Amino acid sequence: MTLDLDFARAQFPALSGEWTFMDNAGGSQVLARVASRVSDYLLTSNVQTGASYEPSRVSTARVSQSREAFARFMNCEPGEIVEGPSTTILIRFLSEAMTGRLQPGDEIILTNTDHEANIGPWLKHEARGVKIRWWRCDPETFELDLEDLKNLMSERTKLVCVTHASNILGTINPIREIADIAHAGGAELCVDAVAYAPHRAIDVKALDADYYIFSVYKVFGPHHAVMFGKRDKLLALDNIYHYFFDKTRVPHKLEPGNINYECAWGSIGSVDYVEELGTRAGAGEGRAGIEAGFAAIAEQERAITARLLDFLGSRNSVRVIGRTSSAIADRVSTVSFTVGDTSSREVVEGVDKAKIGIRYGDFYAKRIVEEHGLTRTDGTVRVSMVHYNTLEEVDRLIAALEPAL
Q1: Sorted alphabetically, which Gene3D superfamilies does this protein's record hold (predicted)?
Q2: Strand bridging mode 356-357 / 20-21
Q3: Which CATH number fits domain 5-30+295-402: 3.40.630.30, 3.90.1150.10, 3.40.30.10, 3.40.1710.10?
């Protein structure tokens, strides 16, 4: 599948300016169609859902359509879609809703490669006697070893938490294999997919994760987020909304205060956009279009990632943090590196002058940075690209980086 790059870039008004955006893992640019949908909701159907009068019925239908869109996006059922303001908040909601199922002596496995969003909410259960076991990456390769996970599993393991793609390494983890290990031991799997969702098609049925969460504002949309949960797992969770919501009220019992309706309606634009990329590449509509759209996205991102990694690999002063392969199966187009003992801050501030937005630091994956001595260089330099970035933009970045390398 070939990406229609001119069409893709034309959908993002911000790209017509003088800045090149390569901090997309922090938040992508927003589609014009998303902004239009948000505006349309606020100006034409901004009433509370659930009433009998016509504008409320319209609002209710629009929110329902957002669940249908994300069910198509993730290959699940609309009733398995929970929405909220961010991945961080949704995982906190999930953690609270699992309180009744986690007993003293139970165990949760966490990784030191995850964003803190999929670590902090689970640590609170330690105070209740739940044991935390750490699945740590190799200090040289930064890889998670599946054999280590198997050795950590016990009859008391209730939950394994892992990222699908690291927001600092770019590494894609083998989620289906991890799910199989977790399930074989009687545990559930919670996947943070924030750094994966903008880059590859999601099929939660194939992955067999029990909970799978990502933020729409990393996927060309508004500040909104989505969580898939297997229907039976959602039903078993505690109600975290008002007392009169019983446990069968899924997904609403997990959406306290209700979701942001205009963001829900606006987010449909992100799904429609990826589907349109697929149809323009020759695929059909619906799920087929989404998969084809992401196939085109993946190839474009492979090309720009290869250009950057080839350059970084040619500099003896540079250490790429994570995999050096640009293969579609290995990594997404998020690349982090250090430059000897040079402060990553200095490198990034030099690039700022060229009107290219990249970033330095720990990116809230603070544990891997602290545990592997990367704080001495102010963390890493991170270049996080998406499909609308071009080879020409990568060449501009390379020219801006060269003086520091």
Answers
A1: Aspartate Aminotransferase, domain 1, Type I PLP-dependent aspartate aminotransferase-like (Major domain)
A2: parallel
A3: 3.90.1150.10
Query: What is the spatial distance between Cα 212 and Cα 357, in angstroms, rounded to a whole number?
Result: 29
Rounded distance between C-alpha atoms, residue 372 and residue 312, angstroms: 21
pLDDT at 1 over 90: no
Q: Can you tell me whether residue 232 is helix, strand or coil? A: helix
At 297, the amino acid letter reads I
Question: Residues 176-185: contacts with CB within 8 Å, 24+ apart?
Answer: 176/206, 176/207, 176/208, 177/146, 178/146, 178/149, 179/207, 179/208, 179/209, 179/210, 180/208, 181/146, 181/149, 181/150, 181/153, 182/153, 182/157, 183/208, 184/153, 185/153, 185/154, 185/155, 185/157
Which residues, in sequence order, are CB contacts of 16 under 8 Å at separation 6+? none
The token pair that represents 79 in the structure block = 């009733």
| Both tokens assigned to 344 | 């990553």
Q: pLDDT (tens digit, 9 = 90+) per residue, 314-350?
A: 999 999 999 999 999 999 999 999 999 999 999 999 9
